[in-house]
Amino acid sequence: MVDQGKYGLLYDMGNIGQLVDRLRALLEDDALRARLIAGGRTRSETFEQERVLPALEACLVPAAAPASDRASLRAVDAVDQHRVAE
User: Fold this and answer.
1) CA-CA-CA-CA torsion for 47, 48, 53, 54, nearest 10 degrees?
2) Helix (H) and strand (E) counts for the chain?
3) Helices marked H in 45-66
4) Is the pTM of this model over 0.70?
5) Which of 25, 34, 39, 80 could crosslink 7 through cysteines, CB 3.0-4.6 Å?
6) What are phi and psi of 4, to 5 degrees?
7) ∠ CA(41), CA(45), CA(51), 5° rounding?
8) Tens digit of pLDDT for each residue in 2-28?
């Protein structure tokens, strides 16, 4: 998702006038361009492998486990969460 003006510029699909205005703003406004670049870099950190993979694994492993194993996985997860909270 793009947050308008924070790390991207949006335009209505098919609205060439808006697209031209956004591109012109990027070309002419150094501060806007720098702000969007910095915002984009910050936003991209939320998608780094070290952050995404553990969350994805936490969702997929229990879902892929046979029903008989799900209870034991939930128990292990509860212990892990308790350790993090300490």
Assistant:
1) -100
2) 4, 0
3) 49-64
4) no
5) 39
6) -50, 120
7) 170
8) 777 788 898 999 999 999 999 999 999
